[in-house]
Amino acid sequence: MNVNDNRILKDKTFDKSRWIQLPRDVIAGHDALKQLPLVVSDLGMKGPLLVLSGRNTMDTVGFRVVGLLEDAGFTVDSLIVGEITYEEVTRTAQYAQEKGSVLLIAVGGGRVIDIAKIVSYNIDIQFISVPTAASHDGIASSRASIRTDDGSVSVAAHPPLAIVADTGILASAPHRLTAAGYADTIANYTAILDWDMSTRETGERGSEYATALSMIAAELMVENADIIKEYDERAAWIVMKALFASGVAMSIAGSSRPASGGEHKFAHMLEKIAPGQVLHGEACGVGTILSMYCHGGDWKRIRHSLKIIGAPTTPAELGVSDEQVVEALVRAKEIRRERYTIFDSITGEQARAAVAALYEEE
Length: 362
Ligand SMILES: [Zn+2]
Known about the structure:
By secondary structure, the protein is an alpha/beta fold. The strands form two sheets. Strands 1-8-5-4-2-3 form a six-stranded parallel sheet, with helices on both faces. A two-stranded antiparallel ribbon has the order 6-7. The chain is globular. The protein folds into two domains: 25-171, Rossmann fold, CATH 3.40.50.1970; 175-357, Dehydroquinate synthase-like, alpha domain (Up-down Bundle), CATH 1.20.1090.10. The model has no long low-confidence stretch (mean pLDDT 93). The chain has helices at residues 3-10, 36-42, 55-71, 86-99, 110-123, 167-171, 175-186, 188-201, 208-223, 233-253, 262-273, 280-295, 299-309, 315-318, 322-331, 348-357; strands at 25-29, 49-53, 76-80, 103-108, 126-131, 143-148, 151-156, 162-166. It is built from 16 helices and eight strands. Helix 7 (175-186) packs parallel to helix 10.
């Protein structure tokens, strides 16, 4: 080996490497649930299945899922899960191991799906997501949030191996949940602005692909605001499509960055200041208007679209006081400090001005 060969070996001009995990089968639409046994067969899973669901959802959809799978010849166990805590995650993992489950099937909203995501990751099996409400952009992502003494933290988890989203089931969920899912996706606008700002100011790594997909999801929502109506399968379809795109954007980025910026830090802080009073997606919607105002963007367009679908746009509609919202804005930076956003530098005076703008005429 001569000197030049040696230099070639040592010159590392390209050392980037990424691992992107995405769902393999995605079935969405009218009566999609009936295709669940086919999806399980397609995945080649042999062994007991474990259906996870919340107390009420187990009665309405969970046992239907158990019946469909048993009729197709599968061995199925079921478990009702509660709040997402470390204890609940451990209890669920132990149950799955006792039963020798080879696949989890999470039937429910964000909470049940997040438990399945973490448990499947911890005990190294896969899970299928069967959402019963289009309320949450974690449906397709590899991130889960878990409640701790310090509030919610986002943890690495498995993305679902498959998603079966039945629009009939999604459309029968309360409209408030669909509206919250809509607002959670609108948050992508300001999440992207914060991410862009951080790549310029702190050198954080960005992703054009994740950014483009995240923006498509948010645009899809604003353009279709007029058709997001109660008990409407087409509305459920559109919101689910956007939530799915957001989830894939997060999986591509390997973090929640494309769908979670200052508006999410604000929402998490508000959930801490006023525990149990606000719905996650709704708080994110108001946070998006406030963040867009601070970024100097078209915040009225965001507010208008949220008004059309009947989502909250003021502290009062969220069920909290103006002072609590001001406090949440100023203290948003305390959540995930490493994630740089527009609210890192907001003063009390600026926060009060932003909250006052929420009440301006259209
Ligand atoms: Zn969210």
